[in-house]
Here is the input.
Amino acid sequence: MSANLSAIFYLISGVLFILALRGLSSPETSRQGNLFGIIGMVIAITVTFLSVGNFSTGFIYVLIFLLIGGLIGAFIAYKIPMTAMPELVAGFHSLVGLAAVFVAISAFLNPEAFNLGSSGNIKLGSLIEMSIGAAVGAITFSGSVIAFLKLQGIMSGAPITFKGQHPLNALILISILVVTYFLCSTQSSNLFWILLAISFLIGFLLIIPIGGADMPVVISMLNSYSGWAAAGIGFTLENTALIITGALVGSSGAILSYIMCKGMNRSFFNVILGGFGATEQLASSGGKEQKPVKSGNAEDAAFLMKNASSVIIVPGYGMAVAQAQHALREMVDTLKKNDIKVTYAIHPVAGRMPGHMNVLLAEANVPYDEVFELEEINNDFANADVAFVIGANDVTNPAAKTDPQSPIYGMPILDVEKCKSVLFVKRSLSPGYAGIDNNLFYKENTLMLFADAKKMTEEITKNL
Amino acid sequence: MEIDPFIFRLSIFILSIFIGYYVVWSVTPSLHTPLMSVTNAISSVIIVGAIIAGLAGNSNEVFNISSTFGFIAISLAAINIFGGFLVTQRMLQMYKKKKKDK
Here is the structure.
């Protein structure tokens, strides 16, 4: 296949990838979009086979390795529980990063195969692009591995900080640039390995100081990195499909990081530099005195909701941990039978990754037109009778509005307090992820339901 | 004077960033998780590089260092491609079911 013809096919697959993302603008068109994505991928892979045109033994091995990976991927995709999506995505990011590194290594060792010159005499431009792709890929890989370990709970979610961390990171980043410069001027393979090693190291160091609560930002950021790594490799291979995709994914991840940061009212740099851990201890030690709390049982909650005309449900990550989404939907079904209007309010940073709560509710068969984002629903709290907060905490904390001392001050919150009554399903009074006390617990119109989210929801349903 | 082909690729790259910017802002927030899994899948189009690398070994020596890295990269990218598209499909399917229920 001629180079021009294959370039046109790569362009087509790039366009199909754009349409895949475009489809996600509404659930109606999203499945079609996904199909476009799959077609785009099939075209890209087929064209690559045809353009290399080498159907020797190597070809069979390519198919075998493709099949092995494909089977593993398909198996994971069918087995993975929806609650584990953040881990899965972090894991997938690490694979993109590692694949980028391996392709770069392969191209560096055998540049003839990629038309990049000869070993030890690689075209300067290609070498620069290759180094960028390899370095960003390595950062994506080690960063994602840490994010994965933190999300899985294998590694503590607490930020790991040490003295001189920022200067060290800055030093490594500068040395990456220096090494890249000398690599390009000397073509030394030793420098190439050093570049990879320090890039792995910096990816690791960049993510360890970031706390568990900031994982939504981290995942989005790594999403973005994986895109830039792909784009870097795309430039090396002079492949339009890869360049387009890399740019799409890179900007997608960047936008998601921005949305997540805004949801927490924190600057991107603040998250990256891992400043949250420091304020945590201060805040939680402050509010230790006992304040009166009204607590109730399932009967009280059922009574309140039965007499309501509208209920807003505020789910948080705690709901996912307790696997309470199905029980919750059953409760809502019962409420709806009693002609009570029920809607769901979702905070941008509810859950561990962008849109995580929506997927969990969708899995429990909650119709997506009953689920609303913060801006859409926040004014409705004042007119609602009951807010049912299940597994969420910080995103409802009024301190974000009233207390300039609070670490979450300025963060947009769901105005749960404006409801006539608030039901809080929680296991204890312990503070949330941000480590701060929630004044909402002590309000006159708040009823605390101390129990496991799933059990409590089931019991309420029985009492309705 | 002729324009370096790199400039053309750079143009594609920059314009694609803008396309990405506008397309992604129009994605509804409730589909942000499928967005991440599908971007994951499509960024694994890096497999094209891996295939070239894998096929580069000659018939006497299918596995040299360079092609071996290529082969491993093929598997890694394939996990992502199949896993990414299928898990996205699975999620999007859940957004459909309820529509029928209603």
Observations:
- Residues 27 and 271 of chain A are 31 Å apart (CA to CA).
- DSSP finds 18 helices and eight strands in chain A.
